[in-house]
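Trying the structure run again after the queue cleared.
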Amino acid sequence: MIKIFSLIAALALMASCIEEGGFGTGESGQQQGTAQQGTGDNNGNGNGNGDGNGNGSGSAAAEMPGWAELPVMDLTKDTEGYLVSQSDRDLYYAMHICPDVKDAKGNLARNYTVAYSAVFHCPVWIAAPRHSMYEGDSGRTEAYGRDPDVPYSIQYSSKSTGGGCNKGHMLGSAERTASKATNNQVFYYTNIAPQLSSGFNTGSGGWNLLEEWVDGQVCRDTLYEVIGCYFEEFVDGYKEYQSPSLISFGGRDDVSMPTMFYYALLRTKNGSSGKAVKNCSADELKCAAFVRAHTNGLKGQKVTKTEMMSIADLEKITGFTYFPNVPNAPKTVANASDWGL
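Done. Tokens:
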């Protein structure tokens, strides 16, 4: 029943966002947004959180929303009603809506979308908007548990760790503290990946330092991000190498440890333009990928242009298509100077 209710709520929200631009107009957010929400960017949420694209038409279960952060999703339902990929039935999707965080027009805001693998038993990517409206004083709820919108049988069964890894949030807890109910959702197992504990997901760890740098890219306009995993043999720009392996993690003995983690980022260059990204020219936007091999060897490594690549180059590695709802996203270029590198 929880799965059905959650899915119905998400699809109802999608259906309510046709044409008008996701969750409302950013201009409305600038006029009506609360101090907690900040100002908007004309991107559809009234507070910098939408995409201006609406949800298109047709069956909600078969049409991906127009949210700016989403990779291409070829949605369908399996026989049990779960959202899956039409081309890869081992790839499950869930779209999580904040239970009690609303935009300036009174609509519930989206939290994040996940693509989760039944083969790797691990998230493949998480897509989310970043904005100050999601930040508050709820703190960490530590509410680890299964995602109600993904089959329990393919998820972790406990919060136990192993393989030299700890529990790594894809979308961080600190990024969703506007309410306890919203923070609860980032503790779903589908938002957790095994990350090496001694030099990657730890103080001054390679991933932590990249996360902190990304925090600095959050702006008055919305930052759109995809946080992803990769599972094939990989060498990054620092010449750090990782090979595929299976580990015991989360109560399972068949979890694939990621060989690489990445951020794919998109935002306006100005940061406070008040424009929807879908209405921006390529010159007004910046997007790039930041990629690190999953090793302990990057502890203390600050973010540099060495780990940066174009979104188009990341697409060649992962096989996913990023930011399809932003027609002018400059995916073939990655200018280090745009990101202060």
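DSSP finds five helices and 15 strands in the chain. Worth checking whether this holds up in the mutant runs.
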